[in-house]
Amino acid sequence: MFQKKNELNKFIDDIDKELKSLLCRKENVREELKEILRLTTFKTKRVFQWYNGGFISESDYKKLINENKISKDLINQWKINGYQKLCCIRCIINNKEDKDKVCICRIPSECLKKIESFTECNYCGCRGCS
Q1: Are 104 and 112 in contact (CB under 8 A)?
Q2: Which parts form a coiled-coil structure per UniProt (predicted)?
């Protein structure tokens, strides 16, 4: 367990401050959205790893989920085989324009080397993390 609950709260508060500052900017909305998704994933993944490693209590973990401080939906997807490295929920939402497409974070890195034209996911900015 964390020696001080303040360490966990400080981590969450620091990320939340960064997220709030991004929401206030209006320069490049698309890039800011990618950064928001990246920070949300980072925060959620770190807390999920700490919980699985026994560094935070179940009550603290559930409290963060209930207060929407971390993404419950993303964590639920990570528990499904093949989705452990998913970058954001947006990348798996099915809609008409994205039919039969998959985000780069779902493609194994050895297959990415064959795709020369790809740069990054349009939604989350992932460049391939599988």
Answers
A1: yes
A2: 12-39
